[in-house]
Amino acid sequence: MKKAIFPGSFDPLTLGHCEIIEKATQIFDELIVSVGNNYEKKYKFTLDKRLEFISSEFKNNPKVIVKSYDGLTAEFCKKMNVNHIVRGLRNPADFEFEKKIALFNNSLEKIETIFFLTSPNYAFISSSIVREIIDNNGDYRKFVPKSVSF
Ligand code: ADP
User: Fold this and answer.
1) Domains (ranges, CATH) in the chain?
2) Which of 40, 43, 31, 41 shows the shortest CA–CA distance to 7?
3) Nearest to 54 by CA among 26, 25, 17, 79
4) What is the pLDDT of residue 67?
5) Are 113 and 98 a contacting pair, CB within 8 Å?
6) Which of 94, 119, 129, 148 is placed for a possible disulfide with 144 were both Cys, Cβ 3.0 to 4.6 Å?
């Protein structure tokens, strides 16, 4: 069974993340969407909320498993016995940033990172932009899936 981990903050889940999850589940038999909980990081949504948005959105896709983790992603992969990480790429800046992390994870635990490109209509979406829209009472709903409501 081919398994991969899709790590991220998902604060909150966006349509961009959903597209990557859909693409990855066409290739992997199981995708563990892994919600990072770093004690030094401040999140807008609680860990429970971030997990709930994803579980509820993908409740009908048996290939999607949702888990939380803290610490290094490579350590979590080892613990789960998974050698592949999935990440999304929106632009060259994402690539430069992701390349360093992918090489680091490869040298640490021999993990391969698989990248999926975002379609142009989602490439400008980020969780941070969605948070800013919410904080300013804007209409965030066209950037997130239905499950993200509060
Ligand atoms: P992190 O804090 O790890 O960057 P995010 O939740 O922001 O967590 O992102 C998780 C993953 O989702 C990353 O690979 C990121 O590139 C990808 N991603 C974020 N937004 C989009 C988007 N609009 N389209 C495609 N991929 C995205």
Assistant:
1) 3-143 (3.40.50.620)
2) 31
3) 17
4) 98
5) yes
6) 148
pLDDT tens digits along 87-139: 999 999 999 999 999 999 999 999 999 999 999 999 999 999 999 999 999 99
What residue's CA is closest to ligand 1, atom 10? 8
Radius of gyration of the chain (CA): 15
| Block residue for tokens 């997990």 | 51
Residues carrying an active site annotation: 17, 41, 90, 127
Instruction: State pTM to two decimals.
Output: 0.95
Q: Where are the beta strands (DSSP E) in the chain?
A: 3-8, 30-36, 64-69, 84-89, 112-117
Residue 113, ligand 1, Cβ within 6 A:
no
